[in-house]
Amino acid sequence: MRAPVTDLPIVLEDVSFVAGGVTIVERISLVLAAGSPTVLIGPNGAGKTTLLRLIMGLVPPTHGRVTWGGREDVAPTHRAMVFQRPTMLRRSAGGNIRHALAAAGVPRAKRKARAGELCALVGLDGLSDRPARKLSGGEQHRLALARALAKEPQVLLLDEPTASLDPAATKAIEDVIRAVVARGIKVVMSTHDLHEAKRLAGEIVLLHRGRVIESGPADAFFCAPRSEDARRFITGELLV
Amino acid sequence: MPNNVSALQLLLTADPTLLAIIRLSLLVSFAAVILGGLIGVPLGAGVALTRFAGREVVIVVLNALMGLPPVVVGLAVYLLLSRSGPLGSWGLLFTPQAMIIAQTILVAPIIAALTRQTIEDLWTEYRDELAAMDVGPLARIATLIWDGRFSLVTALLAGFGRAAAEVGAILIVGGNIDGFTRTMTTAIALETSKGDLPLAIGLGVVLVAIVILVNAAAWGLRRAGERFAG
User: Fold this and answer.
1) Are B103 and B185 in contact (CB under 8 A)?
2) Which value does ipTM take for this structure?
């Protein structure tokens, strides 16, 4: 019997990411432990997406290292990610989920039932046979969430999951995120919506120009920010 | 086939010799497209998704092979299959099988080259998503072939167009034997050289009609599929 492997904690040690001579993420050290959601906030171009891609292991850091549960180079078996603009496979909604289940190694006989459960979890029951690319933006995001959950991840990374969605669609997504958190899955998400960060975050990481300005428990961050930039960001001033 | 009868009469009376020619033409072309697809689609997708030394050379060669001269392929297959050739013992020269082999060689590179382009374009769109899903290399190829299926129909059609229109290769390896290896294109070439222009024209009209029908059917299939899968 092998000990149950876990990707947590995810530890970033002095991580930088440079692309085309531009430093996108600069010397970030961060520990993501099991528990309440970690929300990355910051203006556009702060490096939120790149940081999530580094945490997912989609790109290697230019400098520094990322470890998952103390190990390096771990395939994303226990991690899942929903991109800001998820790519829908050219199949039905159910077909998208079944493809993710197949990739996760779920036996064929169990896929149909599991796909149905996941559809219900994200509130897409009844839309299973619809072509995924014909769904609305909010529905596509929920389908992407269901697809990400197919592998029963320990860590779920969400890149601006509610950007460009209306309030009703935003609420639907946030409800799914709360259900996911209740299942004990570690959520790491980015947003530039402060209200959303307040609603969901256990921990806050404020990014600006590729650097971590401030990080810590959400309550403390919003009540008593330690840095001037954080205070300005919270009060709605523009960080440029 | 009697000589002084018009192609229209032959068609309207469902002349068995003419029908046999049409049947063989379709059999050879479709068999070549199916075999060429079985070879070309995985090959093209494989080249699109793997990085190896000499990959650029393979892509250039694949693209160049789209313009492979049919008579050269016919000659090569002829040499392979002739009695004294390496595969002479198979006894396939001047048979429909030999014609299918020659046309498969012509069609496979066309399908492979067009598949590579299609799959590579799709890959840039799907790369992150499939990496995040931890989809293995073979499953990636399968996923992209399936999701590119409507565009790949165009690759198969290009292959079918090549096979249906081709005369040089099948003339050399088939021999245009009456009732055995005579196809529409080889018959047209023969009848024209014999001066039987009405029959040649009639066969030409049938051939063009078949090509249009096949393309229309594929187009309809693609539109219906896209309506469903987006």
Assistant:
1) no
2) 0.87
